[in-house]
Amino acid sequence: MDIYIDLENLLKVKNVSKNKVCAACKLQRTQLNNYCKNKVSRIDLAILARLCEYLDCTPNDILKLK
User: Fold this and answer.
1) Helices 45-55 and 7-14 sit at what angle, rounded to 10 degrees?
2) Which residue, 14, 33, 36, 56, has most beta carbons within 10 Å?
3) pTM of model > 0.70
4) What is the DSSP code (8-state) at residue 15?
């Protein structure tokens, strides 16, 4: 099984723009795009916590098993 980041889909479901997420979570746009495109090999838990807090979700909503 592989773990993948389903952040792009979650943003669409919650109707939140990437710009708002970047500003609220103190992320660079390229960093957020890498998370959305599943191009990270190591997940920063502090970033994951900020994303979960802002999007009012749990890590299970962002991280999925394939």
Assistant:
1) 20
2) 36
3) yes
4) T
